């Protein structure tokens, strides 16, 4: 006689296993072990099953339970049933999250080792965050998201971002209202923090706010240096009084009147510059060394916009802060060997405007510093005040960390407000999959387009619904103490979810591959390729506009950065449609509207073409230029920056910043292809251990490091990038 196990396997009947299970139940039930009863039940079941070829394990378990009840062994029966239920639960859930957890903790999983280039998967703090994420994803898949969304996500038709946080009542990214928190006070960890009385204290408070906000949400955040600028003059006046007191006896003997005042001012300014240096250094080092509850440094962006100052004195003070930030960014931070390297954070944005974009401008020197810093440290990024004002109803303001951009919103007084606002989440549609699913038929393309975008819409509404009813108590720093709002304790955040105060992002990826399949041309080809690409972008915008009109929720089109998902989408496309030249023949798909990284095109043509698509991505986008080593040709970089000012709202310049700790090599460390796998190798000593190399690359907006890892898809993208400045590089 055979016993049919739950997994379908057939094994020989063995009555000793029945009696053994009953004896274990007796120990956990009444505590009184009765071997005779266990043996009798096993014999009775064997007798009753005689003549049968097969019997299921569940039938045997039911017979055991019934016989225990018949023999008045109720406590044993209860213990046996409990054990059986637990084993059934374990069997149902084994090979699901158990496998993920085991792979994560073993440190041998390619997925977890390369999931995020800004998280070290070997750290307990990171693993704890990932463990919570595994639980959240499991819950999201089982009962938060409907089956059609889960299936579309698994098949790579869409991507529901940050499933590892969906179970919690958390937002995505934000612009911190640092001005309100510093000027009007805040509360951090139930401790009242009043308005700072010096610039250095304001910097310390700012870093504490950054850490708290980062631990209360799951995306990037931005602050403005303009909100710290007023505290420069507070320190100035404080230092002047100290100097006056110190010199009152000595200087009065030798100096008087204007001469004394000049000496006081000179000494005060010198001390003020030292305080500014220390304050900016506090921000730099705190951000680099802070570890949030997410197991990483805060994803923080510093916004540097001169015209955000309230008056000329404040503007000049802000210029000093920008100068110091650029100086320290250029210097970098020391690694464990004491060598200056490029840190991943903070990300820095420098605004190009009319009084810093021409050689004769007052603040041109800052732009020159920014250009030099970009070529050495991949920072800052650049926003054009001119183009942003054209696109954002006359306003210029920061993007949120990874590039997500708010729409313009006005308060009850009709005044535009940006700080204190946030994004609630992102769902991305794979445009190449729509194209390939259509078979190249345009009518079918638009039919599938409607279906897929509606799937994204449905998933975004679930994200929005998860936040509705959330009480301000879940994150007091955000909702009660000024980062986003000053709601009362216990007050729901719902009013901030409607009317455009916050946003939901419809992401898109692979416009290049989509257009290539449908038209035979990439969207950078003037004519049919570009025309269709712009039509797709407009159609995506139209969807957002309609949803916003119908629901009073601000949906916005977002150029998805695609870190790890670039590989996932590429794999799924190959599985579904095979290898198609120019469409599915690589390990990655192209980010958002970008021109594919392997296309040879000069910097100005790339920026000019992408500017058209950037205007149709109002929820966030960025264009980049891949640069060779241009540290000896800064004038060429400045020409690119002037072009950005006149054409692109948001752009960045990519270069290389590497160091091999084994041999001291400080030039480019390259990717090599070994048996179809890309790995980093020092060209000087052959070192391949990324734990002993400092390699920083632009991942997808943020800087990332090889030490924390990229998957093979993202490495393929990095490997294939061609420079866009060859023609204007100095010989």
UniProtKB/TrEMBL annotation:
Cellular compartments per GO CC: anaerobic ribonucleoside-triphosphate reductase complex
PROSITE patterns the record matches: ATP_CONE (PS51161), GLY_RADICAL_1 (PS00850)
EC number: 1.17.4.2
UniProt keyword annotations, A-Z: ATP-binding, Nucleotide-binding, Oxidoreductase
Coiled coil: none
GO BP term, example: DNA replication
Domain (ATP-cone): residue spans on this chain: 1-91
Transcription regulation in keyword set: no
A single GO molecular function term of this UniProt record: ribonucleoside-diphosphate reductase activity, thioredoxin disulfide as acceptor
KW Iron (keyword) present: no
One Pfam family linked to the record: ATP-cone
Xref: NCBIfam families: NrdD, PRK09263.1
Record-linked PANTHER family: ANAEROBIC RIBONUCLEOSIDE-TRIPHOSPHATE REDUCTASE
The protein's name in its UniProt record: Anaerobic ribonucleoside-triphosphate reductase
Source organism: Lachnospira eligens
């Amino acid at each position: 006689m055979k016993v049919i196990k739950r997994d379908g396997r057939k094994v020989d009947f063995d009555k000793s296993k029945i009696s053994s299970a009953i004896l274990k139940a007796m120990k956990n039930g009444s505590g009184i072990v009765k071997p005779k009863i266990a043996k009798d039940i096993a014999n009775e079941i064997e007798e009753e099953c005689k003549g049968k070829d097969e019997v299921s394990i569940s039938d045997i378990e039911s017979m055991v339970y019934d016989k225990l009840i018949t023999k008045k062994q109720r406590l044993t029966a209860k213990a046996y049933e409990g054990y059986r239920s637990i084993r059934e639960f374990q069997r149902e859930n084994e090979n699901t999250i158990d496998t993920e957890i085991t792979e994560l903790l073993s440190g041998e999983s390619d997925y977890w080792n390369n999931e995020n280039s800004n998280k070290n998967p070997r750290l307990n703090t990171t693993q704890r965050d990932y463990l919570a994420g595994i639980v959240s994803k499991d819950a999201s898949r089982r009962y938060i998201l409907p089956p059609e969304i889960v299936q579309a996500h698994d098949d790579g038709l869409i991507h529901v971002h940050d499933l590892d946080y969906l179970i919690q009542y958390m937002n995505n990214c934000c612009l911190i209202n640092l001005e309100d928190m510093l000027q009007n006070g805040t509360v951090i960890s139930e401790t009242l923090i009043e308005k700072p009385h010096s610039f250095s204290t304001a910097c310390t408070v700012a870093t504490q706010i950054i850490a708290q906000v980062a631990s209360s949400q799951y995306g990037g955040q931005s602050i403005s240096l303009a909100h710290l600028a007023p505290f420069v003059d507070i320190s100035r006046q404080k230092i002047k009084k100290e100097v006056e007191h110190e010199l009152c006896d000595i200087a009065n003997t030798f100096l008087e009147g204007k001469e004394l005042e000049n000496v006081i001012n000179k000494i005060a300014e010198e001390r003020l510059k030292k305080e500014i240096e220390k304050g900016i250094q506090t921000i730099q080092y705190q951000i680099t060394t802070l570890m949030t509850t997410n197991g990483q440094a805060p994803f923080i962006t510093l916004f540097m916009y001169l015209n955000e100052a309230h008056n000329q004195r404040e503007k000049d003070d802000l210029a000093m802060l920008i100068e110091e930030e650029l100086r320290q960014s250029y210097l970098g931070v020391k690694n464990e060997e004491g060598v200056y390297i490029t840190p991943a954070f903070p990300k820095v944005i420098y605004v190009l405007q009319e009084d810093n974009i021409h050689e004769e401008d007052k603040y041109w020197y800052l732009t020159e510093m920014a250009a030099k810093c970009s070529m050495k440290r991949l920072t800052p990024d650049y926003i054009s005040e001119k183009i942003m004002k054209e696109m954002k109803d006359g306003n210029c303001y920061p993007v949120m960390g990874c590039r997500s951009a708010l729409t313009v919103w006005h308060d009850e007084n009709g005044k535009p407000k940006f700080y204190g606002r946030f994004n609630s989440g992102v769902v991305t549609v794979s445009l190449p999959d729509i194209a390939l699913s259509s078979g190249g038929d345009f009518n079918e393309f638009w039919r599938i387009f409607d279906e897929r975008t509606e799937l994204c819409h449905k998933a975004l509404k679930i994200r929005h619904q998860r936040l509705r009813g959330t009480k301000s108590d879940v994150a007091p720093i955000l909702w009660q103490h000024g980062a986003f709002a000053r709601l009362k304790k216990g007050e729901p955040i719902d009013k901030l979810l409607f009317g455009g105060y916050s946003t939901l992002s419809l992401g898109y990826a692979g416009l290049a591959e989509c257009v290539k399949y449908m038209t035979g041309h990439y969207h950078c080809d003037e004519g049919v390729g570009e025309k269709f690409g712009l039509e797709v972008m407009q159609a995506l915008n139209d969807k957002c506009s309609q949803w916003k009109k119908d629901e009073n929720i601000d949906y916005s089109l977002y150029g998805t950065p695609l870190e790890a998902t670039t590989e996932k989408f590429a794999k799924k496309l190959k599985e579904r449609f095979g290898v198609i030249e120019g469409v599915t023949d690589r390990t990655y798909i192209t980010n958002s509207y970008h021109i594919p990284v392997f296309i040879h095109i000069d910097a100005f043509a790339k920026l000019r073409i992408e500017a058209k698509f950037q205007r149709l991505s109002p929820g966030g986008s960025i264009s980049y230029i891949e640069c060779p080593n241009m540290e000896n040709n800064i004038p060429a970089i400045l020409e690119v920056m002037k072009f950005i000012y006149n054409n692109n709202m948001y752009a960045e310049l990519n270069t290389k910043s590497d160091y091999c700790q084994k041999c001291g090599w400080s030039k480019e460390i390259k990717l090599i292809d070994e048996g179809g796998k890309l790995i980093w190798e020092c060209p000087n000593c052959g070192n391949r251990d990324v734990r002993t190399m400092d390699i920083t690359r632009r991942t997808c907006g943020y800087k990332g490091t090889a030490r924390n890892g990229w998957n093979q898809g993202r490495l393929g993208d990095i490997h294939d990038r061609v420079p866009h400045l060859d023609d204007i590089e100095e010989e």
